[in-house]
């Protein structure tokens, strides 16, 4: 898609690396994200009960680079879940091709079947996610030094209609920087 190439170039120029897919809902099972995994560098799994518990699984290159779990404060862990058999456990350094089958196995366990899967903002260094075409708004933010002690921040919202860029809204604010 030509537009994403332009967005990647803008990201390099304005120094931002991700684009939010606005109003994207969470997913309820691994089948929903199987085709989307290659376009992202992380996923979040979150329990929808109190207390909140979530797991962030980060990917670097072709393997799991780190796993963090907890409520408000996350701890680095080596594997998740920690109390399941190997085929239903994601470990640091697991190759990417094992993540989806392991998610399927985890979701078969009663304790984990109700977790929601959340995709992060779309990294610009990965290929275009075709599912993004189903959303009418994308957003990103970048900052620039205006003058010593003042930073300008642009909050940009892209609006699409019929798969075509229809409108760009850039909300710009300046603020003092205190050291």
State the order of secondary-structure elements, H for helix, E for strand: HEEEEEEEHEEEEE
- The tally of beta strands, per DSSP, is 12
Span from first to last CA? 42 Å
What structural category do the secondary elements indicate?
A: mainly beta
Largest sheet properties = 5 strands, antiparallel
Mean pLDDT: 93
Overall shape = globular
Strand share of the residues? 35-45%
Q: Calculate Rg over CA atoms.
A: 19 Å
Strands ordered across the widest β-sheet? 9-1-10-11-12
Query: Uncertain regions: pLDDT < 50 for 5+ in a row?
Result: none
Proportion of helical residues: 10-25%
Helix count, per DSSP?
A: 2
What structural keywords apply?
five-stranded antiparallel β-sheet; 179 residues; globular; 12% helix; mainly beta; single chain; 12 strands
Structural features, described:
- The chain is mainly beta and 179 residues long.
- 12% of the residues lie in helices and 42% in strands.
- The strands form three sheets. Strands 9-1-10-11-12 form a five-stranded antiparallel β-sheet, covered by helices on one side. Strands 5-4-3-2-8 form a five-stranded antiparallel β-sheet, with no helix packed on it.
- A hairpin with a 2-residue loop joins strand 10 (137-147) and strand 11.
- The chain is globular, with a radius of gyration of 19 Å.
- The N and C termini lie far apart (42 Å).
- The model has no long low-confidence stretch (mean pLDDT 93).
């Amino acid at each position: 898609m030509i537009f994403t190439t332009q967005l990647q170039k803008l990201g390099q120029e304005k120094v931002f690396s991700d684009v939010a897919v606005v109003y994207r809902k969470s997913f309820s099972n691994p089948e929903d994200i199987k085709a989307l995994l290659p376009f992202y560098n992380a996923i979040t799994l979150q329990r929808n009960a109190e207390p909140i518990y979530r797991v962030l699984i980060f990917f670097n290159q072709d393997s799991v680079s780190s796993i963090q779990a907890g409520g408000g404060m996350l701890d680095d862990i080596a594997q998740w879940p920690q109390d399941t058999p190997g085929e239903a456990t994601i470990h640091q350094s697991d190759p990417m091709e094992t993540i989806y089958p392991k998610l399927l196995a985890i979701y078969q366990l009663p304790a984990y079947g109700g977790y929601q899967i959340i995709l992060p903002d779309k990294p610009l260094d990965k290929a275009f996610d075709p599912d993004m075409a189903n959303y009418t708004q994308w957003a990103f933010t970048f900052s620039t030094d205006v003058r010593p002690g003042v930073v300008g921040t642009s909050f940009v919202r892209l609006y699409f209609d019929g798969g075509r860029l229809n409108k760009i809204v850039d909300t710009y604010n300046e603020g003092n920087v205190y050291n």
